[in-house]
Amino acid sequence: MKYLAITALVVLVTQSCQKDWLKPKALSFFSPENTLIDEPGFNAAIAAIARNVRDEWYGDGAPIISETIFSEEAVEGTTDKFGPAVNLNVLITPDANLNNVDFNRIGWYWERWYLVVRLANTVTSRLGDVKGIPDANKNAILGKAYFYRAYAYYRLTHEFGDVPCSLKELTDAKLDFQTVKREVILQKMKTDLEFAFANVPWVTSKGDVNRGAVGHLLTKVNLALGLFDDAIASSTAVINNGTFKLMTSRFGADAANSKKNVIWDLHRPVNKFLASNTEVLFSVIDRFGDPSATTTGTTSMRQALPFSSNAAILTPDGKQGMTNTLVEIDHMKNYGRGIGRCRATPYATRYIWDDPKDLRHDTLSGNWMEMENLTYNNQAIKGVSPFYGQRMQLRKADGSLLVSNGDTIRTWFAWPHYKLYVEDQIRYPWQGGNTDWYAFRLAETYLLRAEAYWWKGDAAAATADVNTIRKRAGCDAYAAGTVDIGMILDERARELYYEEPRKTELTRVAYIFAKTGKSYNGKTYSLSSFSTANFFYDRIMSKNDFYAKGIKNIRGDQYTMSPYHVLWPIPRTAILANSLATINQNIGYSGAEKNVAPLDKIPD
User: Fold this and answer.
1) Are residues 345 and 414 in contact, defined by beta-carbon separation less than 8 angstroms?
2) What are the domain boundaries of the chain?
């Protein structure tokens, strides 16, 4: 060991005397200096940003779960360990493990959105100096980079509130970031998106940014800024352009299957990238066999389905009813093996479904699955128990539970099969394979416009837009002028479960209530007390039984949430690393006492 140490020292001293050793060298032929020199290089950079956005919906413990369980739609369903985000009051802290597939992915969002910002800034900072790219093409590239940067900052400002903001490529270490007011950042993003809306084409390849996606994001930013007329204008421009239309007729791979319907078609993996699918505004790309595909796929069935193969599920005569092995009744292929990590709440599975004709909640076509639609499939009890192949039931006739460990949180809940079912090319039991995933659909654009109309006081127009989405789902229309913000959020939950970042959108709505002072259910809010009293918390506590009732899982861990969870904690590692200035912590978390006034201007 001494010999190796001496040798290493000699090598270092020798190399340090050579000037060439001090010159920085690119580690890759794909460094910006070698790549961002022509149009194909910049387009490749845009594609690289897109791949970083994609990961929100993919892999074990996908980040979208954290967005969903900080809402009324779901809770963390893991019950076999301490650490998953159940007791939020205890577990969600600035110095907790904030990026772990078994706990939460809050830290992933902080890191990933700033990576997207950094990559976008590299494009915007270098594009102007490159010669030979036609102006129209250059403006389209710039618009796409603006879109991704705005996408990242829109999410950051509704996940974390006031945050640092940088708009230029960083070529040196920077340790003096400062927190900037949320509205200042969003106003800049609005300006950038308006440029993008004028320069990005309406029609591009699937997975690439188009003008419809830009207009959709611009609508969200306009809403966040309280500019409701602008939100109506930007959403209407997308809806009326003619490039994008709701899918209302059968199409694609299963179009000839009379037992299915357009809701099923819309979410089939192969149908998501068809040219005939005019509803998709912005999707992320993940196709089996493509070199850029993820190695895990979505794992959507693993994450968001119940643990139905649990040996604790018993037949009424006390036999183990379920298995995950390859058997005659193959639930692990027909539906997938879930572990209940993203556990849908009664709000999402029962309370919001107000029309028995709703195709999104239809068990007859197989779009929606209740546990009772499954059958006992443990082949070991075939010929032994009369219940083999019979439908599952939760209780005996005497009311006693047929889950031996009592864990109905993880093992017994319903789910949207049409959306979460993704054929698995990678493994068995099926968990959810490779597929494109919707980030923005035109259905959401209608619901965003409905919201803008409601904020404006035009309940009739808001109701008409919501009814457009309900009609496609086979529902009766709401009476004219009856829709309010709660009903719009319910419709979003019916239409966009496991697509939209629900926490982000609820926080955006909470900010609007605080900014406008508009009353909801007789209560008003203000920005000055945003972290202690807000619509986000009140909405969740009125709809999510787990948090509202303090339900405990079989470990005894209690579901808790507080008003300050309207914003996530800034990871303490980020604050400590910024040694030459202050990054503020959100109120309610330790470290907030050191905050300074946020900037009202984005630093140069």
Assistant:
1) no
2) 290-435
